[in-house]
Amino acid sequence: MAETLSSTPKVWQLRNRNQQLLSWFIWLLGTALFVYCWQIVSESTTWFFVWDAPRIAADIGGRMIPPRWSYINELWEPLWDTLNIATIGTMMAIVMAIPIAFLAAKNTTPSTKFVRPLALLVIVSSRSINSLIWSLLLVSIIGPGVVAGIVAISLRSIGFIAKLLYEAIEEIDKNQVEAISATGASGLQTLVFGIVPQILPAFAGITVFRWDINIRESTVLGLVGAGGIGLQLNASLNVLAWPQVTLILILILMAVIFSEWISAKVRHAII
Amino acid sequence: MIKNPLLRWALLLGIVLYLYLSVGSLEINWSRIYAGLDRGAKFVYGFMNPNFAGRWTDISEGMIESLVMTVTSTAIGIAISIPIGFGAASNLAPLPVYLFCRGIIALSRSFQEIIVAILFVAIFGFGPLAGVLTLSFATIGFLSKLLAEDIESIDRSQAEAVKATGAPWWQWINFGIQPQIMPRLIGLSLYRLDINFRESAVVGLVGAGGIGATLNTAFDRYEYDTAAAILILIIGIVMLSEYISGYIRAGVQ
Fold first, then answer.
1. Which of A126, A182, B77, B113 is the most exposed place for a label (fewest CB within 10 A)?
2. Which of A30, A143, A219 shows the shortest C-beta gap to B29?
3. Which pTM value belongs to this model?
4. How far lies A18's CA from each of A23, A24, A26, A144, B77, in Å?
């Protein structure tokens, strides 16, 4: 009898039956969701334009080459503005992010029940909203220009810097802090001599990393009127001056590579 | 700290000089800023009393479009990122494939989503498809790069053990490598889902679909209460999805 029961030998499987069914169910659900979403996208798409896309892409590509090199003389000043937006914006963000990070870290916050959630809310709000949306808001409040860009970049960077910094503060070595406070140091002295030296390398790394991101982001803020090289990009796009667009894109690429090189160099020197 | 005092002072002097020059080149229109304070107060007031009802049909349509774009583009992006991620891992791919895949990653990472969106809108026309393609393209650069780095740092002995059983290439990938990178792949995909949702609010500014267009209109009409409602919804959805993805990631690892 036992022979007949096991006539089909058991083949090895990675998962047992329930796991297999669950895995199929998740795949089915995911696929159905994707198909449903794709249908909505498809309904609001003019497919005629999409079938025409290769021709248009070739057409635009043809117009973009060669870049109009003579236009570069009008781009030095916007490029300088872009650099300033990123740099001053990062500096302002640091000033605001440091106290928020100390309020948000579990081991330095004055109260975990009241102040910490508030600081975390500031961090989440700042992080969820893209710098372009911040600039949109600021352009409509304080008017177009470089200042709107600087404030937008700094508001967006607060959350980023504060989040990474408070995580660094939470990971510090407690013994050093205890050793300092055991000497009879005041609260401020403990902060300056016990905590700050431990987080300083992380802080410098975070700052340079964010500055690098901010250079990228500040190149496009001009699209909504917040200054920098994006203004020229927008103006060139509006008059369909594709050779100028190419030149600006090349310049943006150079700026991005340059900032990435500097930030890699600085981070290397710190670590 | 920098040991060489000359270098230290030169650096400090350079920073001061830069600040002097850059702040000097700012053209600050104080009267315009002063006039804007009133609007700023209005925005803060709008944040206290967000108006969800006034333009609810616009808001809900834009929100649904954003969510739909997020799901579609993340799915497409992941599907393309996995082969490219494998191709960009130096311990798996032959050199020509490696260089080709690294090239795609570098291309995708060098330009901001918004610039890609402008080009795609010009090529594919207005609408969410341009946004979906933009976000998928951006996903490739992010996900493939991190996936390739993860594959490069796997435990070789496990993959070798599978190979020693005589498994063909496909089974080697499936049982030797895939189980090692799966938790991280799921974590990264969920993280990218968050990012794509945030970015989907932005690509709408240039006509690539999503909530961005609604938001732009609200600012243009100075309807700060509606704009505040949209921003609160975005923040809420981001917080919710961060919470859920943290939960799933903890379960996977």
1. A182
2. A143
3. 0.83
4. 8, 10, 12, 60, 30
